[in-house]
């Protein structure tokens, strides 16, 4: 075994295996991109392929038929994602820090309260009444931001990470005269970059992929987020495609439903891929590196 390690054979085999796994993960994305620029009839006859045989930009032309609506939807989605993720991180971290302090006398009941919300909810009708009537958020972007800002699962994940931070660091800061807010912003946050990146990614993904909030609370077309706008485009295309005949020709021959699905995936996944690649390095950082830098 030692000879294999010195010659590097195991590392070579591991590299080959990981490369094959990476290729298997990339192939679906290539198929999605290829199908989005493929002719609809080719997809129907030959199925999805890695490399397109008959190029067609019909799906993208259909989506970009009203470019001002698409750009506006991108802007709305970026605004609610950025503000919701930032506010969610702040509130989640403050709650998690409070729950992680052993000296907090209400720690047990509050932990149970947070956990209880993961098991039960009031239902759709009370939720709609609360957001639309009680808080009067219907028709505003706040209806897309506030309801998704705090999640009990995110709070528990961050609380567990805060508990693992050595208590000696916090006690040393208190001896030096630091208050709770200074401890939180000057010690806890610098040491918690990995969990902040993780929860931040969760929040960004939830806001970016959400369309149900817009379905419930948004009526103005100018306030539609990207996902709901593309959902409407795809739904309208599929409704047209369900018609049996138009002019003696099947609708599927002219309405690119399959390639349209893939084109919507490309337009929504591409920005999130960039976000993930930009923060993935934080997932491999441990608390030791954070302690040294702090």
UniProtKB/TrEMBL annotation:
Belongs to the binding-protein-dependent transport system permease family. GO terms for cellular component: plasma membrane. One of its GO terms (biological process) is transmembrane transport. Keywords: Cell membrane, Membrane, Transmembrane, Transmembrane helix, Transport. The lineage of its organism: Bacteria, Bacillati, Bacillota, Bacilli, Bacillales. Pfam families: BPD_transp_1. It is a multi-pass membrane protein. The chain crosses the membrane at residues 12-33, 73-98, 110-129, 141-162, 183-208, 262-284. This is Putative aldouronate transport system permease protein. InterPro entries: MetI-like (IPR000515), MetI-like_sf (IPR035906). It is found in: Cell membrane. Residues 74-278 form the ABC transmembrane type-1 domain.
């Amino acid at each position: 075994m030692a000879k294999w390690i010195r010659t590097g054979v195991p590392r070579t085999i591991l590299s080959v295996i990981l490369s094959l796994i990476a290729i298997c993960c990339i192939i679906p994305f290539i198929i999605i991109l290829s199908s989005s620029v493929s002719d609809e009839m080719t997809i129907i006859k030959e199925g999805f392929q890695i490399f397109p045989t008959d190029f067609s930009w019909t799906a993208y032309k259909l989506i970009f038929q009203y470019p001002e609506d698409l750009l506006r939807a991108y802007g709305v989605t970026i605004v609610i994602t950025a503000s919701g993720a930032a506010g969610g991180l702040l509130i989640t971290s403050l709650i998690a820090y409070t729950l992680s302090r052993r000296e907090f006398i209400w720690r047990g009941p509050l932990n149970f309260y947070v956990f209880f919300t993961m098991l039960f909810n009031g239902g759709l009708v009370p939720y709609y009444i609360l957001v639309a009537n009680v808080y009067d958020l219907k028709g505003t972007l706040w209806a897309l931001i506030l309801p998704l800002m705090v999640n009990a699962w995110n709070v528990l994940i961050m609380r567990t990470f805060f508990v693992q931070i050595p208590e000696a660091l916090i006690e040393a800061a208190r001896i030096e005269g630091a208050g709770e807010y200074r401890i939180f912003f000057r010690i806890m946050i610098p040491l918690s970059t990995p969990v902040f990146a993780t929860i931040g990614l969760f929040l960004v993904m939830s806001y970016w992929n959400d369309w149900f909030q817009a379905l419930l609370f948004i009526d103005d077309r100018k306030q539609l987020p990207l996902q709901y706008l593309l959902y409407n485009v795809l739904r309208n295309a599929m409704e047209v495609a369900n018609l049996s005949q138009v002019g003696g020709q099947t609708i599927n021959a002219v309405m690119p439903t399959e390639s349209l699905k893939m084109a919507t995936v490309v337009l929504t996944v591409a920005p999130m891929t960039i976000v993930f690649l930009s923060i993935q390095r934080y997932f491999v950082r441990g608390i030791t590196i954070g302690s040294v830098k702090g």
